[in-house]
Write a structure and sequence with these properties.
Shape: globular
CATH topology of the largest domain: Rossmann fold
Structural class: mainly alpha
Largest sheet: 3 strands, parallel
Distance between the termini: 36 Å
Order of helices and strands: EHEHHEHHHHEHEHHHHH
CATH class of the largest domain: Alpha Beta
CATH architecture of the largest domain: 3-Layer(aba) Sandwich
Bound molecules: adenosine monophosphate, tryptophan
Helix content: 40-55%
CATH superfamily of the largest domain: HUPs
Radius of gyration: 21 Å
């Protein structure tokens, strides 16, 4: 069955191995399935919910676009564009914010995490961010949304908004309630320094993540410094969840090798950590270095990237503006 796919990634700082294994790798697989319509968006409107340096934002948008392409997305097969260049996303977001309820947004755990202790000082944009995300998804009649596990709750909110709108305006088929596509295994890649914390761009320590544009030497050094424990390599997956750092490293290896974690455990049981880390470095370098080289090459040609985004925006605009016009009619404008 053909699927309508939509997903977005924020252009804020470097993309890392978590973004690649949790999301982008899956974007590429879906693009390569027959008959899927795929739309991949650099969500720059979402990025400004926290302070950005205007001079750097433009480059980050290009860098994320370059990372999409370097990872295997094809701008001819998929629509690749940046959110702010298609005004329908903001227009739709306003209308949907009159459908969504405060109580629903108050339950969003990502807002609580990102706003921290001083909620009063968080931007209103950060609070209503999931509504803009719902607008992104619903304007394309999306059926499936590939995301990492941290976005599951936002997808549930999107479904609630779609259903409430359809019911309230008596148009049962207008919005499609999308399904999240979350990988069953390795959906959450953890920090190299703390197996209980998600690998994240906002972690102050660069040693906590492998960035997609890290050089070989940097990757090898980061894996060497990754946290382990003083026990030996596990012999099976029993109690592995009590050793989160080890579980994470075995998971990264397995995901990059496209194999089950049990196979990786068997491969390395009885060996010492330094041997495993050497193999893990080789694996990460083998898979990530070609992407990193390509990102750097693409970034030298800003015109080329800007043209991809312009073409993508035109194609996206055709779909989204049509839906927003229908939406406006339904609400009575
Ligand atoms: P973001 O950088 O927050 O815009 O995330 C882009 C995509 O990468 C989203 O689908 C996230 O769920 C996914 N993602 C981000 N960090 C991780 C991680 N540590 N593990 C798995 N997926 C992640
Ligand atoms: N909120 C997502 C994140 O931070 C990014 C995003 C914005 C998104 N709009 C989307 C993801 C639409 C999927 C679909 O990762």
């Amino acid at each position: 069955m053909s699927k309508k796919i939509f997903s977005g990634v924020q252009p804020s700082g470097n993309l890392h191995l978590g973004n690649y294994l949790g999301a982008i790798k899956n974007f590429v697989n879906l693009q390569n399935e027959k008959n899927n319509q795929c739309v991949y968006c650099v969500v720059d409107l979402h990025a400004i919910t926290v302070k950005q340096n205007p001079k750097e934002l433009k480059d980050s948008i290009r860098e994320t676009t370059a990372a999409f392409i370097a990872s295997g997305l094809d701008y001819k097969r998929s629509i690749i564009f940046n959110q702010s260049s298609v005004p329908s996303h903001s227009e739709g977001s306003w209308i949907l914010s009159c459908v969504a309820r405060m109580g629903w947004l108050n339950r969003m755990t990502q807002f609580k995490e990102k706003a921290g202790k001083d909620k009063e000082k968080a931007s209103v944009g950060l609070y209503i961010y999931p509504i803009l995300m719902a607008s992104d998804i619903l304007l394309y009649d999306t059926t499936h949304v590939p995301v990492g596990e941290d976005q599951k709750q936002h997808l549930e909110l999107t479904r609630d908004i779609a259903q409430k709108f359809n019911l309230e305006f008596n148009c049962p088929d207008f919005f499609t309630a999308p399904e999240p596509l979350i990988q069953k295994t390795f959906a959450r890649i953890m920090s190299l320094k703390d197996g209980k914390k998600k690998m994240s761009k906002s972690d102050p320590s660069d040693l906590s993540r492998v960035n997609l544009n890290d050089s070989k030497d940097v990757i090898i050094n980061k894996i060497k410094k990754a946290k382990t424990d003083d026990k030996s390599m596990p012999e099976d997956n029993k109690n592995l969840n009590k050793r989160p750092e080890i579980e994470n490293l075995l998971g990264i290896y397995s995901s990059l090798a496209d194999q089950k974690i049990e196979k990786t455990i068997n491969e390395f049981s009885g060996k010492n950590f330094s041997e495993f880390k050497t193999k893990l470095s080789e694996m990460v370098v083998e898979k990530i270095s070609p992407i990193s080289t390509e990102i750097n090459k693409l970034q030298e040609d800003k015109e080329f990237i800007d043209k991809i985004l312009r073409d993508g925006s035109e194609r996206a605009n055709e779909i989204a503006s049509k839906k927003v016009n229908e939406l406006k009619k339904i609400v009575g404008f």
